[in-house]
Amino acid sequence: MLHRVRRTALAVLCAAAGPALAQAATPPDPLTDTLAAAAPALDREVLALATQALACAARHAGTAPRTLGVIDYSQPSTQPRLWVFDLHAQRLLFEEWVAHGRNTGQDRATRFSNQDGSYMSSLGGFLTEEPYVGHNGYSLRLRGLEPGFNDRARERAIVIHGAPYVSQDLIRSQGRLGRSLGCPAVRPAIARALIDTIRDGAFLFAYYPDPAWLAGSPLLAPDCGEPDARLAAHGTGARHAAAN
After folding, report:
1. pTM of this prediction?
2. Contact between 202 and 195 (Cβ < 8 Å)
3. What whole-number distance in Å separates Cα of residue 140 and Cα of residue 153?
4. For residue range 108-132, what is the model confidence (pLDDT) as tens digits?
5. Which candidate, 209, 167, 197, places its Cα nearest to that of 185?
């Protein structure tokens, strides 16, 4: 039932946003088919958007990421909503809980931001960069590819890290996961393995049916962000990465 509701909502958004979004949600490709079979709990239309954004990001980068991560923030935090795929073997590697930002919502995410100090999660496509050891232990830096939506991720220290508030115990005691300061935090038990799997050039796609992002994302545009080259890989995001 939930999947049907999400599909209906996405269809309405497609109609409202016009040809650009309509094209973003059209016919599945063979990669989508294979990955959907490997992860039946992942909404197929969300996965189709992720593979479209992946192809666009790879086109701009000139290289093909070896792994794809998909976060579906339209699902509650009590459900596994992070999937990681090996794109070469076309198989599922991880299906995990992931936390959202403190001001993004309670159990369900509702608000997103690109602003420093917002304590909200960001939407869109990211490339993973280098791991490091910081306040939250072993962590992974992310570079946002979408100006206005996530291109301040590195500046904001939006990283993947393990957190004790991502646990079944927290779900039992408070009916939701704990929340981060905007980072997609995961279980400590799998954090290192997940980070080492997706470090240095994986593509991560964070989804929510937000009309402004769906209509304005260069990764979901019919022209893949060209000819105006809106991708942050060629703009502010690259400068932020170099500066940090």
Report:
1. 0.84
2. no
3. 12
4. 999 999 999 999 999 999 999 999 9
5. 167
